[in-house]
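Hey team,

Filing this mostly as a record. A colleague (T.K.) asked me to run one chain through the structure pipeline before their review meeting, and I want the input and output archived in the tracker in case anyone asks later how it was produced. No errors, nothing strange. Just documentation.

Input sequence:
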Amino acid sequence: MADVLAGLRGRLIVSCQAYPGEPMRDPRTMTQVAQAAVAGGAAAIRAQGLEDLASIRMAVDVPVIGLWKDGDAPVRITPTLAHAVAVAHTGVEVVALDGTTRDRPDGLTVAETIATLHERTDALVMADCSTLEEGVAAAGAGADLVGTTLAGYTPYTVKTSGPDLGLVERLARAVEVPVICEGRVHTPADAARALEAGAYAVVVGTAITHPASITGWFVDALRHP
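Output structure:
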C-alpha cells in the first residue's frame, strides 16, 4: 500500500458521485465517468456505494477510495465499522470514513473503527475531517490519510468560498500522514493553490463530474452578469 500513497503525491483524485434521484445515479454511469476521469489523467478515483465501488474497481487501473453514504444521522460517510468493512470488501485500496468527533451510529470511536478495520482488512483508511483537532486525532488514531472533506459541513465550522486552504496548511504542519485537500475545489487554480498550501493530493468532484451543478454555475452567471 506504500505504492498507493506514493502514486498520489502531487496528483489529482476525481470524485465520481451522483445524488439519489439524479439521472446519473447508476453504477454503470458512474463507472463510465470514472473511466473518463482516468483517461484524463486522474491518479485515483473516489466513489461511494457498494455497487459503484465494485464496478469501478473492476474497470479502472488506478487506486479507488471508497465510501458508503448511509442514513440520516450527522455521521453519514461510512458511518459504522460494518459499513467500512463492507466497503473494503469491494476491493478498494482506501476506505474513507467520517473522521469527526461526532457520535457514530454504532457507538464506536473513530480510533476503534480505524484499528478494527486495519485488523480485519488490508485497506488504507482516509479520515474525512472538518477541523485541525479532528485531523490530528485521526492521524494519531492510525488514519493513513487525512482529508479536509468536511470542513464547512459540520455545525461548528465555517464554510469558505473555496477550499479551506488554511486548514490544509495547518494540518500539513501538524501531521505526518498525507493531507488530502477536498471540498469546493472548483478551478485548476484552486487545485494548484492547495498543493502550494501543503496538500499531498487534491480531490475534485463537483467541478468535474456533476453536470447539474456546473450547468447551474453558468445559468447563475448569465442571470447576474
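Quick notes for T.K.: The chain has a mean pLDDT of 97. The two ends are 48 Å apart (CA to CA).
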